[in-house]
Amino acid sequence: MKDAPRQQFRNAAHTSGAATAKPKDYELSQESVEIEADNEYAAWALMRETENPLHVGDLLESGEGKLRICKYVGFEDARWFVAEPPPGAAPLPGVPPAAAPDAASQPQA
Question: Which residue has the higher pLDDT, 19 or 108?
Fold first, then answer.
C-alpha cells in the first residue's frame, strides 16, 4: 500500500465486513513477493523477519484470487473497488444490461 493511503487506513475506525481496496492505493513494486504458505497468518510469520514484512493495510492474494487485508485485529476479507458506470453509459461487452423496471410496475400519478 502506498504511504498516504496507509496512514488513512491506519487511522480509520475498524469496520466489520469485507474491506474495499482501491487499485490506485496499491503499487506492485520490486518489494512485492510471492510466497507459499498454508494461510495468511503463516505468510505473515514467514515475512515478518524479512526486509519487507507485511504492514497494516497490505493485501495478500491467494492462488484462487481471494484477497485478505492485514488489519490490527488480524486478516479480514477484502475486495477490489469497482466503480459503477455513469447513468446512460453503454454496457460493457459480455455483461448483460441491468433489468430495467417495466412500465406496468411504475406507480401512476
Answer: 19
